[in-house]
Amino acid sequence: MRDVAGVVSRFFAACNAHDPDRLAQCFAPHVAAVGPDGEAEGREEVVSYYEVIWTAAPDMRFTVWQTITEGDEIATTALATGTHNGPLLMPGGDSAPGTGRRIGLRCCWVFTVEQDLIASYHLFYDQLEMYAQLGLSMPVVGPPP
């Protein structure tokens, strides 16, 4: 029997260790990731997203609250905590310089696992909560063109 949740546990362990090599080993070569700040495709691009986060918040950690597994899909809720000390990619593509503020964001990932590797995931978090904790104003966004 496969341990589908095991790869997600390894994912969070690698994230908390800030270890790009271990993180890459969690992903299928064709992994696709979607989150509020954009999309990433392929191992290198997805790992580079986390390297940006680790640079922005060198003490970033994820505390997993709950994991629900249904077949090859896994939903995980967690708390992301860290200190915003470096440039951070924001939803919409802008970058925010370090503020020195602590953040604690409630997050949810929905993973799809294939052959014991993460093939895709969607990341959800409250963008307003993040902007407020960083002391930033939400950008005004109009309807798509």
TrEMBL record:
InterPro entries per UniProt: Cyclase_SnoaL-like, NTF2-like_dom_sf, SnoaL-like
A single GO BP: polyketide metabolic process
SnoaL-like domain boundaries: 8-120
Pfam families: SnoaL_2
Domain of life: Bacteria
Designated name of the protein: SnoaL-like domain-containing protein
Taxonomic source organism: Planotetraspora kaengkrachanensis
Organism lineage: Bacteria, Bacillati, Actinomycetota, Actinomycetes, Streptosporangiales
